[in-house]
Amino acid sequence: MTTELTVLALAALLQVVQFILYSVAANIQVGPKRAMSPRDEPIVLTGLAGRLQRAMNNHFEGLTLFTIAVVVVTLSDQSTPFTALCAHAYLIARILYVPAYAQGLAPWRSVIWMVGFIATVVMLLSALL
Q1: What is the domain partition of the chain in residue ranges?
Q2: Where is the signal peptide (predicted)?
Q3: CATH code, residues 3-128
Q4: What does the pLDDT look like over 58-92, one tens digit per residue?
Protein backbone atom coordinates (compact mmCIF):
# COMPACT_ATOMS: atom_id res chain seq x y z
CA MET A 1 0.00 0.00 0.00
CA THR A 2 1.32 3.45 -0.85
CA THR A 3 1.98 5.99 1.88
CA GLU A 4 -0.77 8.15 0.41
CA LEU A 5 -3.31 5.31 0.78
CA THR A 6 -2.21 4.72 4.37
CA VAL A 7 -2.66 8.41 5.13
CA LEU A 8 -6.09 8.30 3.45
CA ALA A 9 -7.10 5.46 5.76
CA LEU A 10 -5.87 7.46 8.75
CA ALA A 11 -7.77 10.52 7.53
CA ALA A 12 -10.93 8.40 7.34
CA LEU A 13 -10.34 7.25 10.92
CA LEU A 14 -9.91 10.90 11.90
CA GLN A 15 -13.38 11.48 10.43
CA VAL A 16 -14.71 8.74 12.71
CA VAL A 17 -13.09 10.41 15.72
CA GLN A 18 -14.58 13.75 14.70
CA PHE A 19 -18.02 12.16 14.38
CA ILE A 20 -17.74 10.71 17.89
CA LEU A 21 -16.58 14.04 19.37
CA TYR A 22 -19.39 15.92 17.65
CA SER A 23 -22.01 13.32 18.65
CA VAL A 24 -21.00 13.37 22.31
CA ALA A 25 -21.00 17.18 22.42
CA ALA A 26 -24.35 17.36 20.61
CA ASN A 27 -25.94 14.82 22.96
CA ILE A 28 -24.71 16.77 25.95
CA GLN A 29 -26.11 20.01 24.51
CA VAL A 30 -29.55 18.84 23.37
CA GLY A 31 -30.02 15.68 25.41
CA PRO A 32 -30.37 12.12 24.15
CA LYS A 33 -34.16 12.32 23.65
CA ARG A 34 -33.85 15.25 21.23
CA ALA A 35 -30.76 13.75 19.58
CA MET A 36 -32.62 10.50 18.88
CA SER A 37 -35.76 12.26 17.65
CA PRO A 38 -36.85 12.12 13.99
CA ARG A 39 -35.62 15.74 13.68
CA ASP A 40 -38.65 17.01 11.86
CA GLU A 41 -37.39 20.40 12.95
CA PRO A 42 -33.66 21.01 12.54
CA ILE A 43 -31.44 21.04 15.59
CA VAL A 44 -29.18 24.07 15.62
CA LEU A 45 -26.07 23.41 17.66
CA THR A 46 -24.12 26.24 19.23
CA GLY A 47 -20.85 26.62 21.06
CA LEU A 48 -18.47 23.67 21.14
CA ALA A 49 -21.02 21.22 19.68
CA GLY A 50 -21.68 23.53 16.74
CA ARG A 51 -17.99 24.10 16.10
CA LEU A 52 -17.27 20.35 16.23
CA GLN A 53 -20.13 19.73 13.79
CA ARG A 54 -18.80 22.36 11.37
CA ALA A 55 -15.25 21.00 11.67
CA MET A 56 -16.52 17.50 10.90
CA ASN A 57 -18.51 18.72 7.88
CA ASN A 58 -15.48 20.67 6.69
CA HIS A 59 -13.40 17.51 6.83
CA PHE A 60 -15.99 15.66 4.73
CA GLU A 61 -15.51 18.34 2.08
CA GLY A 62 -11.71 18.26 2.29
CA LEU A 63 -11.60 14.48 2.42
CA THR A 64 -13.40 14.28 -0.92
CA LEU A 65 -10.72 16.28 -2.72
CA PHE A 66 -7.91 14.54 -0.82
CA THR A 67 -9.33 11.14 -1.78
CA ILE A 68 -9.32 12.18 -5.43
CA ALA A 69 -5.69 13.28 -5.09
CA VAL A 70 -4.68 9.98 -3.49
CA VAL A 71 -6.51 7.95 -6.13
CA VAL A 72 -4.93 9.94 -8.97
CA VAL A 73 -1.43 9.65 -7.49
CA THR A 74 -1.82 5.95 -6.71
CA LEU A 75 -3.50 4.77 -9.90
CA SER A 76 -1.13 6.76 -12.11
CA ASP A 77 1.82 5.29 -10.23
CA GLN A 78 3.01 8.81 -9.40
CA SER A 79 3.65 8.19 -5.69
CA THR A 80 6.88 9.87 -4.63
CA PRO A 81 8.42 10.99 -1.36
CA PHE A 82 7.07 14.45 -2.21
CA THR A 83 3.46 13.27 -2.63
CA ALA A 84 3.84 11.26 0.58
CA LEU A 85 5.00 14.44 2.31
CA CYS A 86 1.97 16.28 0.93
CA ALA A 87 -0.31 13.53 2.25
CA HIS A 88 1.26 13.75 5.70
CA ALA A 89 0.95 17.55 5.62
CA TYR A 90 -2.77 17.17 4.83
CA LEU A 91 -3.32 14.75 7.71
CA ILE A 92 -1.37 16.80 10.23
CA ALA A 93 -3.26 19.92 9.19
CA ARG A 94 -6.60 18.14 9.56
CA ILE A 95 -5.63 16.83 13.00
CA LEU A 96 -4.62 20.32 14.12
CA TYR A 97 -7.74 21.83 12.56
CA VAL A 98 -10.11 20.04 14.95
CA PRO A 99 -8.87 21.61 18.21
CA ALA A 100 -8.23 24.93 16.45
CA TYR A 101 -11.84 25.05 15.27
CA ALA A 102 -13.22 23.69 18.55
CA GLN A 103 -11.42 26.43 20.47
CA GLY A 104 -12.38 29.11 17.96
CA LEU A 105 -8.78 30.01 17.17
CA ALA A 106 -9.07 32.64 14.46
CA PRO A 107 -7.22 33.12 12.16
CA TRP A 108 -5.20 29.97 12.95
CA ARG A 109 -7.90 27.53 11.98
CA SER A 110 -8.04 29.14 8.54
CA VAL A 111 -4.26 29.03 8.19
CA ILE A 112 -4.25 25.34 9.19
CA TRP A 113 -7.06 24.64 6.73
CA MET A 114 -5.07 26.33 3.96
CA VAL A 115 -2.05 24.10 4.62
CA GLY A 116 -4.17 20.98 4.10
CA PHE A 117 -5.85 22.43 1.02
CA ILE A 118 -2.56 23.47 -0.59
CA ALA A 119 -1.03 20.06 0.16
CA THR A 120 -3.95 18.41 -1.64
CA VAL A 121 -3.75 20.70 -4.67
CA VAL A 122 0.02 20.21 -4.90
CA MET A 123 -0.49 16.42 -4.85
CA LEU A 124 -2.84 16.71 -7.80
CA LEU A 125 -0.52 19.03 -9.70
CA SER A 126 2.48 16.79 -9.08
CA ALA A 127 0.63 13.86 -10.64
CA LEU A 128 -0.17 15.92 -13.72
CA LEU A 129 3.27 17.43 -14.26
Answers
A1: 3-128
A2: none
A3: 1.20.120.550
A4: 999 999 999 999 999 999 999 999 999 999 999 99
